[in-house]
Amino acid sequence: MAVPKRKHSNARTGSRRAHDHVKKRQIGYCPQCSNAVPTHSICPKCGYYQGRTVIEHEEA
C-alpha cells in the first residue's frame, strides 16, 4: 500500500480545502405570493412551483 513519505504542510492542506466551505442558500421570491423561497423548491405558503400549483394549500 502506498504511504506518504513526508507530512503535508498546513498551508498545502489549507489550499486544498479552500473551496470546501458551505455556501449560502440562494433565495428567490414566489411570483404568486411574493414569499421568500429557496430556489428550486415549492413555495411552502401557496404550493406554487414553475408556473402551476403543485400542492393544494388550505387557508386557515
From TrEMBL:
It comes from the Bacteria. GO terms for cellular component: large ribosomal subunit. The keyword Cytoplasm does not apply. GO terms for molecular function: structural constituent of ribosome. Pfam families: Ribosomal_L32p. InterPro entries: Ribosomal_bL32, Ribosomal_bL32_bact, Ribosomal_zn-bd. GO terms for biological process: translation. Keywords: Ribonucleoprotein, Ribosomal protein. Residues 1-23 are annotated as: Disordered. Belongs to the bacterial ribosomal protein bL32 family. PANTHER family: 50S RIBOSOMAL PROTEIN L32, LARGE RIBOSOMAL SUBUNIT PROTEIN BL32. This is Large ribosomal subunit protein bL32. It comes from Rubripirellula tenax. The gene is rpmF.
